[in-house]
């Protein structure tokens, strides 16, 4: 066999660089392009001009100023109207001194009062009363025109009878006498109402009675005329007993007092 000669792995001070055909040279990292450069490298970024900014602020200030001015003038007009109305009302009051109408009970006679319990345990009430009232107008130049008056007689919130009276005109310093008949025919009462009535009938002074008058009135003076205003008259301090026989029982009206109150209607409620 022949001997092979192998070259030495070590070089004599010199090295030869070995090249790899598949090796690639290192490149610097690539950053994402700017957005403006992505679409249009030559595009100049938008910057709002001071003129447009001031124009926008000026428009906002002008709208706010108009709103404030409209609110101010509206409040000023309302306050002026209220002030004029108050001055006119005060002048009217001091010139004419208007006074509210007054009412009083002249007499109350109970001609019928029956509590009848039927076989079906239903208690029915039948009543009939004659009422006389007086309506006075204490004013010197004011006229009161009343519409039809509805009347209700109660005893401890239990309705005893109902009635009505036609409308009338009450002149200055005039007294109008009202005669009316109040009645109720076979009205069925609940157990609480029957108990209350029977308990009051045992008292010495009899039933405590209260009269309610509801109507509308118009005040008129010369050519001036007010709108219709609701009025409720409440008369208290009346006591009545059941009549014995055919003679009517006269109710006690010594402590009777009547009070007139205005009733303001808002939608479906009265105040």
TrEMBL record:
Entries under InterPro entries matching the protein: LEA_2, NDR1-like
Subcellular location: Membrane
UniProt-annotated stretches for the region Disordered: 1-46
Coiled coil: none
Superkingdom, taxonomy of origin: Eukaryota
Record's keyword annotation contains Transmembrane: yes
Pfam families in the record: LEA_2
Entry's transmembrane regions: 66-96
Name of the protein described by the UniProt record: NDR1/HIN1-like protein 6
Lineage: Eukaryota, Viridiplantae, Streptophyta, Embryophyta, Tracheophyta
Limits of the Late embryogenesis abundant protein LEA-2 subgroup domain: 132-235
Organism, as annotated: Nicotiana tabacum
